[in-house]
Amino acid sequence: MLQIESGTATPIEDKTLLIGCRENLDLSSAEGCLPVSTLHAFIFPIDGQWYIRDLGSRTGTMLNGKPIHQEKA
Question: Going by C-beta distance under 8 Å and a sequence separation of 6 or more, which residues neighbour residue 71?
């Protein structure tokens, strides 16, 4: 499960997820975009492990309260 701040939890299945402010993304924050960038982060699997990568967002990406660039989730 993925939960952004106090938002609704989203199940992560066997696919990649693009997170950002655009409406057509897997996880979009189109309503009230700040502090989410247009293309903010990418969640992807490698060998059965999930990773999250910041896509150069202006506010950065945090995982469990820690700023990250790319990290095993």
Answer: 51, 52, 63
Domain count, the chain: 1
The predicted model scores a pTM of 0.73
Query: Residue 60: which CATH number?
Result: 2.60.200.20
pLDDT, one tens digit per residue, over 22-62 is 778 777 665 556 577 888 888 999 898 899 999 998 888 88
**Is residue 4 a part of any domain in this protein?**
no
Range of the domain at 30: 17-72
Kindly report the three-state secondary structure assignment for every residue of 9-72: CECCCCCCEEEECCCCCCEECCCCCCCCCCEEEEEEEECCEEEEEECCCCCCEEECCEEECEEE
Which residue bears the tokens 């960038």?
A: 37
